[in-house]
What we know:
The structure holds two protein chains of two kinds. Chain A is an alpha/beta fold. Helices cover 41% and strands 22% of the residues of chain A. Chain A has one domain (3-122): Response regulator (Rossmann fold). The longest helix of chain A is centred in the N-terminal third of the chain and has 14 residues, at 12-25. The mean pLDDT of chain A is 90. In chain B, 35% of the residues lie in helices and 25% in strands. In chain B, strands 1, 2, 3, 4, 5, 6 and 7 form a seven-stranded antiparallel beta sheet that branches. In chain B, strand 6 (132-138) and strand 7 (143-149) form a beta hairpin.
Amino acid sequence: MGKTVLIVDDSNTMRKIVTRALxxxxxxxxxxxEAGDGQEALAVLADNKIDVVLSDINMPNMNGLEFLKAxxxxxxxxxxxxxxxxxxxxxxxxxxxxxxxxxxxxxxxxTPELINEVLGPLI
Amino acid sequence: xxxxxxxxxxxxQAVSTTLENMIFMEAVEHYDQDYELPSEDLAWTSLLIQxxxxxxxxxxxxxxxxxxxxxxxxxxxxxxxTQAQMDDILHELLNTIAGLFMTNLLADDQPYQLGxxxxxxxxLSELEPGSIVWKLMTGDEDPLQLFAIGTTLxxxxx
Lengths: 123, 158
């Protein structure tokens, strides 16, 4: 049975590029949903059954770390795995993301193989 | 003293990897290093490097090439492309190139801080003496150029 993934990024371009990488990674996704920031992502999570989230860190309104914190406080969605996608993979920010529940991180520019490697074990 | 790897190579590798992974294009040095982008067909964006060195990176290409990339990424016909989509792609390319450039440049996973890409207006303003230019092109000979500006940044090229 196919899965549903949520891509969270303020850049329409990056959402398209992540979508393309997911399809090329060969993971069986029924549906790929999108959100432009953390606030939108929380609304999508509340209204849909999402299997995994791929989220940027730097976003307006609610960034990726704030999104993780808010998600962790909501029992209905706190267990949905989140993987961060960002140009920043400094140990500090990744450790902070993981302390809020992120399951991993992928650095831009990524390959479909890397997406598969990180997402595969989570779904 | 900042420990770092060769600056020129760090940028070439960053551009090459970014174009290959994001838009499936290769990047090589332009065969004509005197080539200048035509001002009437110019698109560019800039981004500040804030830490641990201070400087600015600019990415410039022809609007024609930018439309070509936009068409490929969004799977749109030329007449369907919007300026916002073109701006977004240019910003994402520079943002990704800059992050990878700093990762390639700095030794031992040193942290760095970047600003957000800002749209360039009109012609590329005159560069400071000592600025570094990478004149590159894709396999289809579409030209693009990267610029590193700022004394503490370009000093890493010594």
